[in-house]
């Protein structure tokens, strides 16, 4: 039986699930979660950090014919290779994801996170190199596979006995089920971003994007609402520091959008536009959005249950996990897409936890820069509630506007902040001095020596001081190439190749600041 036929059968099984019964199970299990919260099952003696790191694969010019044919063109990762690397599959066949082991928030814990990412990524790169490919840490790929267009790669699908199957999507039923749920009004996808409107039958266009996702596990679950409210206030400022997707593959741009117009009117973080537009087309109310705040822990649980069901998957089989008691609730949470979201889970009662998954930050040029965001987020989650920082008084609408201002303009955006004195400011230097000082203070209270706490955040302070982000680095190089006479496609492709060349030298051990300092 072909892979497509097996997938189609799995999709049909998922579509046969009664959504009302699925929602009823999730609602019943939510009461189990609430009782566990009341009983202290999700409490821990200290804060814990974790990390998810997404990559895409490109041809490095060695060994295989496909690799030699395309310089840094996108490549599909063989499933056997993914298993050898110890990485997890993501949406597209070109994707790979790493998840770190949770560690205590401390200097040793952060060092363990950094060491684990470096060790596993180095081993994965060595394994991928045998196939003539390398893994890239980035936010949005721009060079399609050799001999293909980005549009063709992202929209290629087949009909298998009435089930739509995306040709270049991983063989996970939930991914393919998204293309076959809902009525006719929810069929199909359109990527909507400045200059781009790509129509597709499936959610495969989401595979354009990759991210990093720091996790912060609170020590006491009942403090999650306060931490969450602070997380919403720092989402815009941290995203502005991390923007890294100013360009799409050139063949996706609408007519009339040349290089100069993209530079003048394009966003700095198109990843946000892609994720929102692709998945929000599937439901009546947008599932991917800047979330509302909540003031009690049970409201967080209720909102997950009340979220519109996209994929009513069959009831999962038990695996002797603690959270198997609320497995349907966890399944529903899997499509509760918010840029900041609460998580309740645990393989055992001792490891059960309530945490915040911070999703705004795109993939970064180097591991060191990626872990800097993890340290900043964790430090802020530690310090802001402890010091009762007045930025929690910033109204929700302004926090949301800050987020989308960062999407559009990165560090050039006007972002409103409330300083320690309670005064509002849009001064970039004042904002980040306060933000990063508090992140550093949070790391110190978690046990980091002064010099180490400062070192974790140094890559982000450098970005502020130099007004340089990965997105601005890419934009500057495209602008220079256009000025030298290159057409837009060549300028974007050659900038992407330079990005990957620089990353090859610095991904594991170096830092993004070296890229600018070596010009």
TrEMBL record:
InterPro entries, per the entry: GCL_type2/YbdK_subfam, GCS2, Gln_synth/guanido_kin_cat_dom
Xref: SUPFAM superfamilies: Glutamine synthetase/guanido kinase
Pfam families per record: GCS2 (PF04107)
GO molecular function annotations of the record: ligase activity, forming carbon-nitrogen bonds
Domain of life assignment: Archaea
Cross-referenced Gene3D superfamilies: 3.30.590.20
Cross-referenced PANTHER family: CONSERVED PROTEIN, GLUTAMATE--CYSTEINE LIGASE 2-RELATED
Protein name per the record: UCP012666 family protein
Natural source organism: Halorubrum lacusprofundi (strain ATCC 49239 / DSM 5036 / JCM 8891 / ACAM 34)
């Amino acid at each position: 039986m072909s892979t497509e036929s097996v997938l189609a059968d799995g999709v049909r099984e998922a579509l046969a699930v009664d959504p009302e019964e699925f929602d009823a199970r999730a609602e019943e299990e939510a009461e189990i979660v609430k009782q566990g919260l009341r009983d202290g099952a999700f409490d821990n003696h200290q804060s814990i950090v974790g990390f998810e790191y997404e990559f895409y694969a490109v041809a490095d010019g060695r060994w295989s014919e496909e690799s030699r044919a395309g310089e840094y063109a996108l490549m599909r990762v063989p499933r056997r290779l993914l298993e050898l690397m110890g990485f997890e599959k993501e949406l597209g066949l070109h994707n790979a994801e790493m998840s770190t082991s949770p560690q205590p928030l401390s200097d040793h814990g952060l060092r363990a996170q950094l060491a684990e990412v470096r060790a596993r990524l180095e081993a994965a790169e060595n394994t991928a190199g045998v196939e003539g490919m390398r893994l890239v840490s980035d936010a949005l790929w721009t060079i399609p596979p050799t001999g293909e267009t980005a549009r063709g790669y992202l929209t290629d699908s087949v009909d298998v006995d009435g089930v739509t199957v995306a040709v270049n999507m991983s063989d996970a039923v939930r991914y393919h089920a998204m293309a076959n749920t809902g009525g006719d009004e929810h069929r199909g996808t359109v990527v909507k971003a400045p200059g781009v409107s790509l129509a597709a039958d499936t959610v495969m266009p989401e595979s354009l994007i990759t991210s990093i996702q720091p996790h912060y596990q609170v020590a006491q679950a009942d403090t999650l609402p306060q931490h969450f409210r602070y997380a919403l206030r720092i989402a815009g400022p941290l995203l502005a520091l991390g923007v890294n997707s100013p360009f799409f593959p050139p063949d996706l741009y609408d007519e009339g959008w040349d290089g100069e117009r993209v530079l003048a009117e394009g966003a700095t973080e198109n990843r946000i536009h892609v994720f929102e537009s692709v998945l929000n087309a599937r439901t009546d109310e947008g599932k991917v959005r800047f979330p509302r705040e909540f003031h009690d822990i049970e409201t967080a649980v209720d909102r997950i249950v009340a979220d519109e069901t996209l994929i009513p998957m069959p009831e999962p089989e038990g695996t002797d996990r603690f959270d198997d008691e609320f497995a349907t609730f966890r399944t529903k949470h899997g499509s509760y897409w918010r840029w900041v979201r609460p998580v309740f889970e645990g393989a055992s009662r001792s490891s059960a936890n309530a945490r915040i998954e911070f999703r705004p930050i795109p993939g970064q040029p180097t591991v060191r820069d990626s872990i800097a965001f993890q340290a900043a987020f964790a430090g802020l989650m530690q310090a802001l509630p402890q010091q009762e920082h007045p930025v929690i008084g910033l109204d929700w609408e302004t926090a949301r506007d800050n987020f989308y201002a960062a999407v559009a303009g990165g560090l050039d955006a006007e972002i409103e902040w409330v300083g320690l004195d309670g005064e509002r400011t849009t001064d970039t230097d004042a904002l980040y001095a306060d933000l990063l000082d508090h992140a550093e203070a949070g790391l110190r209270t978690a046990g980091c020596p002064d010099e180490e706490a400062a070192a974790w955040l140094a890559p982000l302070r450098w970005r502020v001081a130099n007004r340089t982000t990965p997105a601005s680095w890419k934009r500057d190089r495209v602008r220079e190439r256009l000025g030298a006479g290159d057409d837009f496609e060549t300028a974007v492709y050659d900038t992407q190749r330079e990005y990957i060349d620089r990353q090859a030298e610095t991904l594991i051990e170096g830092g993004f600041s070296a890229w600018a300092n070596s010009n």
